[in-house]
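Changelog-adjacent note: as of this version, every example in the card shows the full chain rather than a window. The one below runs 172 residues end to end.
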Amino acid sequence: MTLRYLYIILFGIYISFQLKADNHSLELKPVINLSLAKTMADACETDQLKNGYNPVNIAIVDAGGDLILFRRQNNAFLLSIDIAQKKAKSSAGIPYPTRKIEEIVYGKKDGKPGRAPGLAHSKDIVAFAGGLPIKTKNGHLLGAIGISGATADQDEKCAAAGIKAVEDILDN
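Full-length structure tokens:
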């Protein structure tokens, strides 16, 4: 009976080595967490107060577009809630700044059409500035931040301030 158990154990060990050899193991990757998102949102709010532009809505999502943090400043436009979240999701789903997505959809200001004008018809893509991907120094996508409520340029500046506040962590 004990010989049978020994064979079962040895077979289990053999199978586990085979699975590892076949590259079936899970790879670990960095992820964004609530603490990091709060630091980014705080930096965003500080930038907004320092520069005096309109109150903003701040949305931070993970790489899959799932909401990690949402913050609405007092008197920020209500309709900007959805826009901030969609800017973040757009920048996570197409891992480029939403300003770049605008160029892809509508073209540059040189009069040439965009490369993918059909993206303008997607209900969840926002193609104007204010959304930025959050990436590690090695280029791994952690998520994205979307800001709405001020001008598009100010929204993007606020998002950049949020990312800048955690860039030392992103370098690790």
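Structural remarks: Residues 105 and 116 are 5 Å apart (CA to CA).
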